[in-house]
Every structure is written in structure tokens, then in C-alpha cells.
Amino acid sequence: MADHDTAPGTAKELGAFLERRREQIAQRWADAALFRTVFTVSRDEAVEACKAVLDALADVSRSGRLEDVEAPGFGTVRDQLGRMAAARARAGFTPVQIAGEVAGLREPVTALLRAEFQDDADDERVTACTQALAVLTSTLRLVIMETTVSAGEELIARQRQQLLEVATPVIKLWDGVVAVPLIGTLDSARSQVVMESLLEAIVDQRAAYAILDITGVPTVDSLVAQHLMKTVAAARLMGAECIVSGIRPAIAQTIVQLGIDLGSIITRAGLADALAYALTQQGIVVSARPVTEAGPR
Amino acid sequence: MHAPITSTTRLPIGSDADLAWVRQQVRQAAADLGFNLVQQTKLVTAASELARNALVHGGGGHMEMTVLAEGAHRGLRLSFVDAGPGIRDVELAMTDGYTTGGGLGMGLSGAKRLVKEFTLDTRPGQGTTVTIVDWVSGLPAPRTGAP
Ligand SMILES: Nc1ncnc2c1ncn2[C@@H]1O[C@H](COP(=O)(O)OP(=O)(O)OP(=O)(O)O)[C@@H](O)[C@H]1O
Ligand SMILES: [Mg+2]
Fold it and tell me: What is the third-level CATH fold of A2-160?
């Protein structure tokens, strides 16, 4: 028998032991950082969480699939383990450190195991059970590692999504006037988000004017221009007029030479000019500043 | 043709993120060579068009960026290389507004207008290479605020 193979009898025996000593093990685990710092409402909550993990381990042992990360027994606690690992990761622990904490759960169980079999002369059974426990804990570690990895991927995807939204705030400038200051690269994904949030804001704010400020967009090529035109057309369908502001001189020259006709779009040099235009159109006069633009071009 | 060549950089074109990187690198190189803001913007925009064509129509490829020196003149040569389907009718593809992909159809013709030299080399089934060259206009720009 290879020494990492666990005899079915031993696996069952380990399972029975975990079940029998459920309360004691749970009491010891509850003080481990892995549980204590995650289940903070009460100690009882932590103890319950420990018991859930123990029940799962006992189940896996009885099924004899000690080395199988896909063992059905883990199914009931996978979510909980994921939450625990995520909480530790948020607290700044690396996956390796978290794995170390999981490995640390073995020690108190081994101690109980030895104590229980102390009177027994049967050394071989103790050794076999401790080894089986070692196998089981490393499988548990793998299960948790797996959840941290997928949590990491999820986190990146979520942050990317958040960035998309954060980077495109729609601001209400005046009654009926909304604006989006665009910053950075306007790729297709960003443009989609801009268009959606702008249209939403037009509806929510009953806006008649929407300003797209591209001061922060470094390059306007044919794709960006196309996105701008589509957004303007969609806003128009919603009953709002779009004004594109912040086209810098170098970009204006480039767009013209590129051959793109933005003639159907109302443009203004800056955000302030665009707002002035929208207000004037609505018959609002801002007196502190001479009105330079009046009426459609 | 343009000698001596001072340095060549090769950048991959395989994703939207690569396109952003290409634009940044071209802008940086153009600024370092002393291109003025309008020239920089035109060159970066042309590069953006051609890199996107290599990605979207050519299935990806790479850009080769070479700094050129001819006497006191400094220039930048950018080659966009892909091994895609090639362009069957170059004249048609160079027509303003012609697109096979729902674009504006201004990329190729527009890029040509934005730079001093433009060459298109394509073989159906083999791929496409578009090379553009631009020279720093006038006297070499004074190195303002150089590190
Ligand atoms: N590298 C290439 N490989 C194969 N076909 C190309 C390549 N570059 C351009 N084409 C063809 O030439 C056509 C015109 O290109 P052009 O860049 O002018 O317009 P577009 O890419 O379709 O739209 P956009 O205005 O957004 O750039 C394309 O639709 C495509 O059929
Ligand atoms: Mg194109």
C-alpha cells in the first residue's frame, strides 16, 4: 500500500472520530483566526461555523474520498469556506498565508486523536488515522485555495466593471441639463456604458440637453467619432439635444483631415460654453457672464 | 532609404488594450522627437486607425516603430503588419466611406491624409502591411523641459 493511500476502514474510523468529537474540536477551532475573525457576531456563531466544516469533513471521510476536492461532502460548506477565505484576503492575507491557517486546523485534531487512542496499544491505527487526517486537511486547503482563486478573478472582473461606471458619472448641471465628462480611452465597452448611463439620466432627469465633454479623451479616431455620433443620435431619439464640448484644437484639425463630418453635431469649445448654449436655448439668461452664443448655429 | 536607422521597437496588436498601448508609445516617441502637438495628434490618430484595422480586419499582428534620421531631420516610421485575409481591391478600400465591417470607412483613407508618406502592401490570403512615415516639421524643436 502506498503511504498516501488511505484504507477505507481508516477513512471511516476518522469520520466516526470527527463526528464523536465534533463539539470539542469545534470549541478549539472557534478560537483560530480563520473562524474568530470572520464570524464576529458571537463565539457561538464561530462554533456553529466550525461544526459545519467538521460535518462536511466527516461526510467526506465516510465516503472515503479524502483526496477528492470534488467530494460531495464539501458541497455544503463551499460557500462558507469561500466567504472565510475572502474575508481573510480582504484583511490582507495572501493565499499562501490563508492556506497556512487552514493547515493549522490539523494540530488540535491530531492532539485529540492521540489522546483518544492513548490507552490503545494499537499504534498503527493512530498513525493511520493521523495520516488520513493530514490528507483530508490538505484537500480542505485545496478546496479553500480554489475559492480564493475564483474570488480573485471575480474581484478583478468586478473592479473592471466598477471602473467602467466610476469613469462615466452623469452630472446634472441644471434643470433639464445633464453632462458626462469623458476621460480616457473610449473603447467600445466604455462607449456602451456611457451611452446607457446618459440615456438613463435623460429619462430620469427629463433632460432636454445632454453635454458630452471630451476634454479628457486623448484621441478621437473614426471609432470614437462613430461612438459619439451614435450616442448623439440615440439621445435625439429620446428627445434630448446633445452638445459635444472640449474638442481641443489639435483634435479638431485631426478630425477634419481624417474626413469625419461632425457637422450635424452641435459642438462648443468648453463645458461652460455648452451649458450657456443649453440655458440660452431654454430662455434662461445668466447675467454674470455675457451671453456669446444665442440661437442655433 | 532613410539612413541611419537609430532604433526599432516592436509592439503586439492583439487586443483593445494593445491598441491603447500602441497609441501611448507612438505619442511618447513623437513627443520625444520634437513633433508638435498637432503633428503628434495626427500621427497617433493614424496609428490608432491602422492598428485597429490590423486587429479587426487582419485578425491581429504587430507594429514596428522606427526612429529615422536624415541629416538634422528626425522622423518616425510606423509599420502595421498582419497576416490576415489581405485587401482584394485596394482602390475601393481606400475610398472614403467604404467599409466591410460597419465602420465609418474613414480609417485607411483618413490615415493617409494625416501623414506625409503612406504605403500599402497587401496580398490576398497573405496579409497586409501599411507603413506610414512622418517628419518633424521645420527646425528641430528646442528641447524644452528636457530631463
Ligand atoms: N489590415 C486589413 N486587412 C484586411 N482588410 C482591411 C485591412 N484594413 C482595411 N481593410 C478593409 O478596408 C476597408 C476600409 O478600411 P477603413 O479603415 O477605411 O474602414 P473600416 O475599418 O471599415 O471603418 P473605420 O472607419 O472604423 O476604420 C475595411 O472595411 C476592410 O474591408
Ligand atoms: Mg478602420
Answer: Globin-like (1.10.490)
